[in-house]
Recover the amino acids of this structure.
């Protein structure tokens, strides 16, 4: 099966020299959920913006549904964007406050060439799919609750029949109980429609709940990735171990990270986590550790892995 999204060597360097995204690879299979986690400011959302072509980043390769997403322009880019939608953290970003919810959905349909006759039944179908009543479709955003607003944003994203939906902290602003309802809705929609998600969150418990595979970012780079179950059971990178130890109810010994992440404008040499890592040695300041596959699909960028003895075996 070929990947739905194949992104290699993603980079985003701002004019001030800050490398927000530094050589990130992300492959997403049809119908899967790929989680992207890390502290705020680690480059997760910028990665999404590069994929969505909202930031002028670079990529060695960026293919979506076998089309060259990086080179696409005009009508071809519009066609691909219909298949690649986003649910943002704050629905105000995608729902115009001056339009009724149904009008916002129609706006997206019109932008992607849906005929006038097809729009109304499509809006009714979408509202039903996300659990909103017709009356809520006639409401303005300020008349809806946070959960209803996020359902409306999901309906808007689904309007153009996307194959990949990027959920960028999509449930982070919601209360826990509402969060669970929206997550369950996303899982149900995936089962019914076969869509894939790139699920971005700083909240690991949320990512664990929905993801098939997960990548952990630190200072613009992926430091560990693997099947979600394995990564949770056997985190290898000291940063992943620290993140997971902070999750309530996991029964892990808490690892408290010292200090804040260094400035992305002046990252440490070698492993950029070394200024906060309890296992750092001189070796870690040398070359940047590459991602090495330890077990099928489970890769880590850390000089501790594979253990030196394993290399001699
Ligand atoms: Fe820590 Fe060194 Fe591994 Fe980086 S490479 S995580 S500093 S042990």
């Amino acid at each position: 099966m070929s990947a739905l999204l194949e992104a290699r060597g993603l980079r985003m360097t701002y004019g001030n020299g800050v490398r927000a995204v530094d050589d990130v690879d992300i492959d997403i299979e049809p119908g899967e959920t790929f989680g992207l986690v890390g502290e705020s400011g680690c480059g997760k959302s910028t990665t999404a913006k590069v994929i969505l072509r909202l930031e002028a980043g670079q990529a060695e390769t960026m293919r979506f549904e076998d089309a060259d997403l990086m080179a696409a322009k005009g009508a071809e880019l519009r066609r691909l964007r219909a298949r690649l939608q986003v649910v943002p953290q704050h629905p105000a970003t995608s729902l115009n406050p001056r339009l009724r919810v149904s009008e916002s959905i129609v706006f997206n349909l019109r932008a992607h060439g849906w005929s006038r006759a097809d729009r109304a039944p499509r809006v009714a179908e979408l509202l039903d799919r996300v659990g909103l009543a017709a009356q809520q479709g006639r409401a303005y955003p300020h008349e809806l609750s946070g959960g209803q607003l996020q359902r409306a944003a999901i309906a808007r994203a689904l309007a153009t029949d996307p194959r990949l939906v990027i959920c960028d902290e999509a449930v982070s602003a919601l209360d826990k109980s509402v969060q669970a309802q929206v997550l369950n809705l996303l899982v149900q929609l995936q089962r019914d429609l076969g869509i894939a998600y790139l699920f971005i969150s700083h909240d690991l418990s949320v990512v664990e709940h929905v993801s098939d595979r997960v990548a952990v970012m630190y200072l613009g780079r992926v430091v560990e990735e693997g099947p979600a179950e394995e990564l949770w059971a056997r985190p290898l990178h000291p940063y992943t171990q620290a993140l997971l130890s902070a999750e309530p109810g996991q029964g892990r010994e808490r690892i408290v990270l010292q200090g804040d992440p260094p400035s992305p404008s002046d990252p440490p040499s070698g492993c950029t986590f070394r200024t906060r890592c309890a296992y750092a040695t001189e070796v870690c300041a040398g070359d940047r550790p590459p991602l090495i596959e330890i077990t099928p699909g489970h890769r880590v960028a850390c000089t501790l892995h594979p253990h030196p003895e394993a290399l001699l075996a």
